[in-house]
Write a structure and sequence with these properties.
The protein is mainly α. It has 3 helices and no strands. The longest helix is centred in the first third of the chain and has 14 residues, at 8-21.
Amino acid sequence: MPGTKYSTEMKAKAVRLVREHSGDYPSEWAAIGEVARRLGIGSAETLRKFLSAVTASA
């Protein structure tokens, strides 16, 4: 099923890590890419979509 590969907890952790560590990288995109790689998320774009969804719902 689409949209069920990553748990809500995993998405929340990934978003939190990007927010906490984005200042450690030259750009937010670089932070997204590194967090995605470290957590085994398929692509940086997937994590960017997680962030967009959280931002849109806030």
